[in-house]
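Recall from the previous lesson that a structure prediction takes nothing but the amino acid sequence as input. Here we apply that procedure to Amino acid permease from Aminithiophilus ramosus. The sequence below is the only information supplied.
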Amino acid sequence: MAQLRKEITMTRGVVLAVTMILGSGLFGLPGLALEMGTPHEALAAWVLISLAMIPLIFIFSDLGVRFTTAAGLSRYAEEAVGPWGNNAVVYLMIGSVAFGMPAMSNIAAAYIVRLVGASESAVIPFSLLFIVAMTASNFFGVRATSAVNGLAFSTLAGLLVIVIAHNMGFIDRGLAALGETASGEEPLAFRSVASICALLFWAFLGWENLSYGLEEFQNPRRNIPVAFWGSFFVVTALYLLLALTSTGAALSGHSVGGAAGMADLLPRSFGEKGLIVVMILVLLANGNVWVFSISRMLYAGARDAILPAPLARLDGRGIPRLSLFVLLALFSAVTVMAPLTGLSTGQLVILVSQNFVFLFAFAIVAYWRLTRGAKRWLVSGGATLTSALLLSDLSWWVLFPAGLTAAGYLVWRRGAKG
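The prediction returns the following tokens.
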């Protein structure tokens, strides 16, 4: 059987990981956090959630080195609960991307509509075009995927330099606010900080998805930890810089709340349209790398006889072309059908969000079973507390991932008996 090619270097790994995490939340969440509490509470939440991610990075980095396979998180679940966990995670991830990627494409389409001045009726056509675009580069291999993501990251870095250089005074005020928060000068409401943390948690989702691309890493024992920790420090630095800037601006009397509040921090010469172009590029890179990872998951699932065997076929360049076509068709179908069934973009996001409680649980249990000593309890306990932040948003929608998990178990059991 043809094998996936090991074309992901250390640099490409870091870029893939960074662009897998960064999305529309980069410029939207700082303003949304300010609407949920005081500037000091929002800043405290950014710091706390950044620290809370450390145990999960430990877990995904450790498991990634142990299991350098395209099965990724599915393999971790098998280690956690036995063979049926592999089935469950494959179904959970398919359920996640089936609704999550159309939601992302709808968000990107909304930006495009605003950019070109089209009517709201154009959202679905633009969404379908965006799905084609974020899938297309994957047909040309890892190098093309890395090139697209590198371009988006470079553009994003340039925009951040502009924002930071234009608002150094706000950053100074944000640093002063951080000192006031740490010293206890400004009272914080625990419930408010916890709610903001739950919101900001979504900005850090994506490292679990990187696991599906680890089979293609060169020198995995060295490069996989660098990809996880390097991307963590880059992403955290970007988020905290924007958090300091938005906090400083809010305390200085500027209106920067809401999803588009950060646009007011750009020089007038740059304008709203410039920000929209960058956001579309960031979303394209984000979607592009998710398609890359999930196509590898489909390939691994077929290789393990969980999914139809044809999905395990690779072309002459080691690309799971059929998996990419299946994802393209799936995302397009859901994009068209969702509004016909009354599902809004927000509801699509809720469906996806519930799944991560289950997905993280499998990884945490796998790490706990494979490690020993104090580190086992410290890291697993910290990751459990971090994942608990998701529980504040649980609703009856949790039946969706519960059903997918149960389906994974039942299908495995039927196969085992047969």
